[in-house]
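Curious: explain these tokens?
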Amino acid sequence: NGSAPAITTDTVTLTNSARTLTLGGSLRLAIAARLGVGTHTRTLLTAATKAGAFSSVAVEGAGYGTVSLVNNSGVWTGTVDRGTFTFTEATGALNIVEVAPLTALEAWRVTYFGASANTGAAADNFDADGDQTTNLAEYATGTNPVVANPGTVLIGLGATGQYLTLTFTTIADPSLTYTVEGSNDLTAGSWTVIDSLVGEAAETTTITDTVSLTTQPRRFLRLRITR
């Protein structure tokens, strides 16, 4: 029973080497609080000689919730709420591996690609559906990365007809930065920042160019998304 994270553990110890600790029945591992991200090992049963086996092993309590572990030749394993538990009858040791919660982007990758890592078809710079929009741009503008679509970034004219505008959708992820840039000729070093914002809400935003078409009739805008 762990009453405080990474501190208190109840242990059964048999010090007489002539005695045998016989395992049997159900073992319930009550964990009252999370131990934190990382690997944690606790020795629950110590004896020179062990015999028998548990009929079932379960994790319960407020820390991680409840899960019945699966037995594989005396090694019991199970996963619940970001915690992976391994109890080994031979050593009496309980091993707990807690992983960090997924970020919003990682959870999005799992939804569409079945994996959270920034690799392969799920990589930020990969265009999974071949619609000329990267996965990161699809995520940041709220579109489906595995179904080709025209996107939500639209160029237009302001009310006076003198300035270009760029309209796009943002999502509520503050790790994202949306930067609108302008250029007169599309050359690599010609792009300058017009405006920049953080993804604070799911909404449609329109940014107006700062260069008038009356003075520069050839003008281009683009949206750059970084994290």
